[in-house]
Amino acid sequence: MRRNGSAPKRSGRLSGGSPEALGGVPFNIGARTDAYHFRLYIAGDDKKSRRAIDSLQKLSSLFVPGRFSAEIIDLYKNAARAREDSILAVPALVKVHPPPPTTFIGATNDQFAILRRLGIPFDPKVMSAYP
Q: What is the mean pLDDT of residues 54-73?
């Protein structure tokens, strides 16, 4: 224990980097709530669109089976849907259900940043392994 009362600094990420590596139990997101429904808006088949789709697939693995659904909407094929959700930039991930709708704009591999931005609760024990 440190004399000044501050907590010791972490020295980086835990090995493994996955929820399973931290105890064998995947996230229990949505266990006490309704299922989550998302819409991912992309523009064509460019690098950012593919990265956003990959990120959505990884995000889906953090949810309890049956508690995640998503649709992918290409603005080149269906621009009218973007107006319904007031999409101004792509890629954009919209949490449709449960309300209120929330939007994350951009493509990232940091699933936990997406969860925080969309206001989705997660297991803090697992999250603490990712500074």
A: 88
User: Between the CA atoms of 63, 64, 66 and 70, what dihedral angle is there, to the nearest 10 degrees?
Assistant: 0
Integer-rounded Cα Rg, in Å, for the chain is: 17
Picking from 78, 62, 76, 47, the residue whose alpha carbon sits closest to that of residue 120 is 62
Is the pLDDT assigned to residue 123 strictly greater than 70?
A: no
**What is the token pair recorded at 49?**
């669109």
36/29 Cα distance (integer angstroms)? 9
Q: How many helices (H) and strands (E) does the chain have?
A: 4, 4
Fold of 33-127: Glutaredoxin (3.40.30)
Residue 88 in this model has a pLDDT that exceeds 60: yes
Tens of pLDDT, residue by residue over 17-61, are 443 333 334 445 444 556 889 999 999 999 999 999 999 998 888
Three-state DSSP at 111 gives: helix
**Whole-model pTM?**
0.69
Q: What are phi and psi for residue 73, nearest 5 degrees?
A: -120, 120
**Nearest one of 115, 98, 92, 121 to 29, comparing CA atoms:** 121
